[in-house]
Recover the amino acids of this structure.
């Protein structure tokens, strides 16, 4: 089955998350789970999760993103399963109740919050006890270093490699990046058990789009390569993003 090129960027995360939710549903004996998507924006994950039948609450600071979420959910006929509320990780419990969710997504959040540890603690506090699932997706340091170097920006690459926040300079739009070890440690400090670490967009950001589009079957082959490399620690070091799946002990 062919897939859109854009979907390739999150295919690894989606497969891991869907399997984790299936296990959670089986464990609790409920086919419908309550999912919280912090920073979920226009519903890139929320709407597909709702199509699986889960109830999804999206917390995002952008009213424009929440409007797009509402429209997208309506177009996909899952408006009754998706709720958007304006807020952020810092004031999460101003808009949602703690300990009410089977799964929490924290995707593209820890790079931007003032205190990554606090943002993650809030996400964990939203989980129900025993077996709740946390999915964390954040910018990877190695991928940024590699990308700047391949673009000929060698000083930027070296700066990102040595900068405490993994930034390549003042023009860098990303406030913070992580290594796999740093992100895993941050999750473990909340008391959760890390079930898996995955490299995301290991190759897809580096392969020219024209090359993939010109070769029949190349997109699917690239997706299979991404999936094969995702769990190998050697490729975590060069991934554009890092994904950590964890569970409440």
């Amino acid at each position: 089955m062919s897939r859109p090129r854009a979907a390739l960027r999150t295919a690894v995360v989606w497969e891991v998350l869907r399997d984790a939710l299936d296990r959670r549903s089986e464990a609790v004996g409920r086919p419908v789970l309550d999912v919280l998507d912090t920073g979920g924006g226009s519903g890139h994950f929320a709407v597909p999760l709702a199509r699986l039948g889960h109830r999804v609450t999206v917390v995002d600071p952008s009213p424009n993103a929440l409007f797009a979420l509402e429209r997208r959910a309506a177009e996909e006929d899952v408006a009754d399963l998706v709720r958007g509320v304006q807020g952020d990780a810092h004031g999460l419990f101003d808009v949602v109740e703690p300990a009410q969710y089977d799964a929490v997504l924290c995707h593209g959040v820890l790079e931007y919050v003032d205190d990554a540890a606090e943002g993650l603690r809030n996400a964990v506090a939203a989980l129900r006890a025993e077996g709740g699932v946390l999915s964390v997706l954040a910018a990877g340091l190695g991928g940024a270093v590699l990308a700047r170097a391949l673009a000929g920006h060698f000083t930027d690459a070296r700066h990102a490699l040595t900068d405490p926040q993994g930034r390549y300079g003042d023009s860098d739009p990303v406030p913070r990046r992580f290594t796999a070890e740093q992100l895993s440690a941050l999750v473990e400090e909340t008391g959760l058990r890390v079930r898996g670490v995955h490299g995301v967009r290991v190759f897809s950001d580096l392969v020219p789009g024209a090359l993939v589009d010109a070769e029949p079957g190349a997109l699917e082959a690239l997706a299979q390569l991404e999936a094969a490399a995702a769990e190998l620690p050697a490729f975590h070091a060069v991934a554009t993003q890092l994904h950590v799946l964890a569970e409440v002990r």
